[in-house]
Amino acid sequence: MQSKFKKLATLTGLALGLTLVTTPAHAGFIVAAIVTWATAAVVAAPILVPLIIGAAVIGASILITKKSKESAAAMDMGSAADFAQSGNQGIMVNKTGSSQSIPVIYGETRTGGIRVFAHTEGTVGSGDDEINNAYLHLAFVIAEGEVGACKKIYFDGVEAGSTSTTGSSDHGNWSIASPWSGKVQMYFRPGTDSQAEITQLGNLKGSWSPHFKGIAYAYLRLEYESDVWTNGLPEITFLIDGKKTRDPNNLGATPTSNNRPARAVLDYLTNTRYGKGLSTDDLDMASFIAADTYANNHGFECRGNLITSGTLYANLNDLLSSCRGYLTFGNKYRLLIDQESNETPVEITDANTVGNLQYDLADKSQLYNKMTAKFLDAATEYKDNVKVLTSSALKTKDNGLDLEAEISLPFTKTLSVATQILTEEINQSRQSHTISLTCTVEAIDIQVGDLVNITNETFGITSKTFRVLSSSLDPSNEVTLVCREYDEHVYGSSIITDELADNND
Q: What is the mean pLDDT of residues 496-503?
């Protein structure tokens, strides 16, 4: 009797070459080219005239990035674009082939893998009960390393094995559930650059000898039995404790797996294998420390798969969507989270303003009374979920019109966080008037993210608070600021229905 495993292996066209994991530079030439292009696009701004001394170059807030996202929509190849199109099925399915890009996994999440090896061999039973090719050997590349652990393995969505072992785990570390107990062996390596190969897999590969250095991967041996594998080869997924990242407050400490957005952004900006490759000397580390503390205290988490073939711009936007953060550039990169501020605003009046002001009121395309977020929900075994947040009070003010927007949150895995992000986005949309003005050189110390109080007789505003979105130094040594309305109530847990009056009465 021939095993069904043999037929399955033949149909899926496995036993593939693993050119994508034979060297430390797993991402390959295509990723390097994309990163180089995206890097040039991001860092070109500081050499323009007027000199950009501060700008929100990348940000997850819809309103901060609205125009730049519209112009860059065609090149958005990041996780959000992929998730918006295919949802759960773009992440949970097992891919096959040597041209697949290897994801970076941040935080705890569930994912499929890239099936890179399959081999059948062995005989069980005898006589009429003999089964040839009874053992199916599978290897899956899961992520760029080093990750913390593979905690669970699922067959067709059902938990088949679990372990509390972190790092490398061999078959003896796994508890296998019924009906697979005795019919499956599970092994995992977390992706260190010096990790030892799984011996059982190494004995099968023959002359084909990838080293899996720096790659988190799993090896499974399945023994055929018709009563166990009733549906043939199952869809296999993994619960991963993701990439080990550094603490911005202690860069020399051992990296750890965590769900913290600022640490994921820090890793992606500084990683030379799949990220931007910046030195920490190019980063304002105090801003990363503050963002890390704020996001952690407010429950924001970064959990998901980053697609390494995506553009640098798109991938950073996707990471920052998990906490409504934005990246600014002056003399260094600063990580900021859109949040309530307790700073004392700088006063700007007609006395230190030069020339005309441009005051832009929000139109219907920027106002929302209804928003929808798509995300994978950890509470429902990482199935697709949709959160719709609507304000009937705002809809009444909008003459009964539905003013709505949809967003994808590829690095959000809980309903509470998705709800908070939607709440803040709706609130900010109602406080979205912007003002552009030129100030005397004394304003050169004002940074992106700072608060300013603007008084202007022409527009009838008195000490109205704005947040600075960009700052540029003109050839005449004057400073041009672009600012957006600020209201501390944006960052609460409820939708604002009594927006600030334009004259601040």
A: 68
- As a whole number of angstroms, the distance between CA 22 and CA 420 comes to 43
Q: Does the bond joining 179 to the residue before it have cis omega, within 30 degrees of 0? A: yes
CA 298, distance to chain mean position in Å, is: 18
In the chain, % helix, strand, coil (3-state, to 5) comes to 30, 35, 40
pLDDT in tens, 280-315: 999 999 999 999 999 999 999 999 999 998 889 899
Ranking 19-28, 120-129, 463-472 by mean pLDDT, the lowest is: 19-28
Q: Please say whether the beta carbons of 343 and 450 come within 8 A.
A: yes
Task: State how far the Cα of 69 lies from the Cα of 464, in Å rounded to an integer.
Answer: 28
Name the CA dihedral angle for 345, 351, 352, 358, rounded to a multiple of 10 degrees.
90
Name residue 314's amino acid.
A
CA distance 400 to 268: 44
DSSP string covering 254-285? PPEE---HHHHHHHHHH-TTTS----GGGB-H
Amino acid at 447: Q
Q: How many Cβ atoms from other residues are within 10 Å of residue 425's Cβ?
A: 22
Residue with tokens 């600063």: 334
Distance (Å) of CA 445 to CA 101, 338, 450, 471 = 43, 20, 10, 10
In this prediction the pTM is 0.85
**Could you tell me the end-to-end alpha-carbon distance of the chain, in angstroms, rounded to an integer?**
85
Alpha-carbon span 483 to 434, nearest angstrom:
5
Burial of 35 (0-12, 13-18, 19+ CB in 10 A): buried
Report which of 5, 12, 292 is spatially closest to residue 120, judged by C-alpha positions: 5
Helix (H) or strand (E) run with residue 318 in it: helix 312-320
- Which residue, chain included where needed, has tokens 């390959």? 28
- For 53, the 3-state DSSP assignment is strand
Q: What are the distances in angstroms from CA 305 to CA 17, 30, 41, 64, 413?
A: 24, 18, 24, 24, 12
What's the rounded Cα separation, in Å, for the pair 307 and 80?
Answer: 9
Q: How confident is the model at residue 481 (pLDDT cuts 50, 70, 90)?
A: very high
Instruction: Output the six-digit token pair for 441.
Output: 């050189």
Among left, alpha and beta (phi > 0; psi -120 to 50; other), residue 316 is: alpha
